[in-house]
Amino acid sequence: MDRTLAIIKPDAVERRLTGRILERIEAEGFQIRAMRMVRMTKREAEGFYAVHRDRPFFQSLTTFMSSGPTVVLVLEAPDAVRKWRELMGATNPAQAAEGTIRRTFATSVERNATHGSDGPETAAFELAYFFRGLELTGE
Ligand code: CMP
C-alpha cells in the first residue's frame, strides 16, 4: 500500500465542493487515513511549495494557498501517488481529461481545486509537513 498527500484547495472549499471531492476519492477506492482542515499562513504555504520558489508563479500560488481554509488528506491505495494524480487530471484544467476532478471543478491553472504529491519522495516530505507519525500509523 502507498500513501500520498492530497489538498482540497481554497477555491474548492470556498465553492462548497469538499463533499463532492471526498465522495470521488472514496468512490475511486482510496482509503482516507488522515484528514484535517488547515488555513495555511503565507510562510507555511511557502514552506510547502519551496521546490517552486524560483518559479514566476510562486508568489501568486502561495498567496492563493494561504487565502482560505484547505482540507489536507492522507490517501492510501496501491500506487496512490500515480492514481491520485490520474484522478485529479492535468494541472491546467483546460488540458485535464474528461471526468477528472480538475476538469470538473477547477477554473484555472492556479485555482485548480486539488493538489497531489508528484512522486514518492515528495509524498514523504508532504505527508510529514502536515501529519505527525502518530496520526499516520493507520492502525
Ligand atoms: P499543484 O499541484 O498544487 O502544484 C504546484 C501548483 O502551482 C500547481 O498545482 C498550480 O496550481 C500552480 N501552477 C503551476 N503552474 C502554474 C502556472 N504556470 N501559473 C500559475 N500557477 C501554476
Describe the structure.
The chain is α+β, with helices and mostly antiparallel strands. The chain has one domain: Nucleoside diphosphate kinase-like domain (Alpha-Beta Plaits, 2-Layer Sandwich). It has 7 helices and 4 strands; from the N terminus they run βααβααβααβα. The chain has a 4-stranded antiparallel β-sheet with strand order 2-3-1-4. The structure holds adenosine-3',5'-cyclic-monophosphate.
Q: Helices and strands in order, then pairings?
A:
Layout: E1 2-8, H1 10-14, H2 18-27, E2 31-38, H3 42-48, H4 58-65, E3 70-77, H5 80-88, H6 101-105, E4 114-116, H7 120-130
Antiparallel strand pairs: 1-3, 1-4, 2-3
Helix pairs in contact: 3-4
Bound molecules: adenosine-3',5'-cyclic-monophosphate.
Question: What is this structure, in a nutshell?
Answer:
With 139 residues, the chain is of the alpha+beta class. Helix content is 40%, strand content 19%. The longest helix has 11 residues, at 120-130.
Enumerate how many helices there are, as a single number: 7
Number of domains: 1
Give the total of beta strands.
4
CATH class: Alpha Beta
User: Runs with pLDDT <50, length 5+?
Assistant: none
Q: Give the class from helix and strand content and strand pairing.
A: alpha+beta
Mean pLDDT across the residues is: 96
- Major sheet characteristics: 4 strands, antiparallel
Shape: globular
DSSP strand (E) fraction?
15-25%
**SSE string, helices as H and strands as E:** EHHEHHEHHEH
Helix content percent band? 25-40%
The radius of gyration over CA amounts to 14 Å
Q: Which small-molecule ligands are present, each listed once?
A: adenosine-3',5'-cyclic-monophosphate
The CATH topology is what? Alpha-Beta Plaits
- Please tell me the CATH architecture by its name: 2-Layer Sandwich
- Name the strands of the widest sheet in spatial order: 2-3-1-4
CATH superfamily: Nucleoside diphosphate kinase-like domain
Terminal Cα span: 14 Å
